[in-house]
């Protein structure tokens, strides 16, 4: 894969245009952080890359078959245990011991057998991160993955993400300049008035 490429992408919701002739290349194996104000099209980029939206014009190419996604919403199966949520994407390809090791890295080992619906917001966020990492996509699409985490938990979750996405192509969306600086990689500032 040569990388994820947005070429002249336009996208509107009704009469509100959020992307106009937007182009960006995320080279294979690199990390790119996208920042900008609410409504400027950051989440739209992620949904276009994931194939959940189609552009009105332009193209999105270089999307591999295996995507790991952390959406703004956690999208966990609330009645399932944390381990069952992980197993839902890994099948039998990942051992229980490996899943527990990942949960331990994120401070969730004690929650492994709890229903996701009983977790705090920050715990759900970390479970969603573990699920994306354990799926093992070739492209990681991360939409504010650290949202709602306190500083210590955020730093641990970010270190986990950086460790387990080494060498992968990552598109990281955030509102936080501090998160962007900690994440590293190339920075793209999207200002709604310039798109």
Structural overview:
With 195 residues, this protein is an alpha/beta fold. It has helices at residues 42-49, 82-90, 96-105, 121-135, 151-164, 177-183, and strands at 3-13, 16-27, 31-35, 57-61, 67-70, 139-143, 169-174, 186-189. It has a five-stranded parallel sheet, with helices on both faces. The protein has a three-stranded antiparallel sheet with strand order 2-1-4, with helices on one face.
Shape: globular
Strand order of the largest sheet: 5-6-7-3-8
Instruction: From the 3D structure, determine the CATH topology of the domain at 1-64 and 168-195.
Output: Rossmann fold
- Supply the number of helical segments: 6
Q: What structural class results from the helix and strand content?
A: alpha/beta
Distance between the termini: 27 Å
Give the C-level CATH assignment of the domain at 1-64 and 168-195. Alpha Beta
Strand content: 25-35%
Low-confidence stretches: none
Mean pLDDT: 93
Percentage of residues assigned to helices: 25-40%
Strand segment count: 8
CATH superfamily of the domain at 1-64 and 168-195: P-loop containing nucleotide triphosphate hydrolases
Q: Report the radius of gyration as a whole number of Å.
A: 17 Å
Biggest sheet features = 5 strands, parallel
| Gross CATH architecture of the domain at 1-64 and 168-195 | 3-Layer(aba) Sandwich
What's the order of the H and E elements? EEEHEEHHHEHEHE
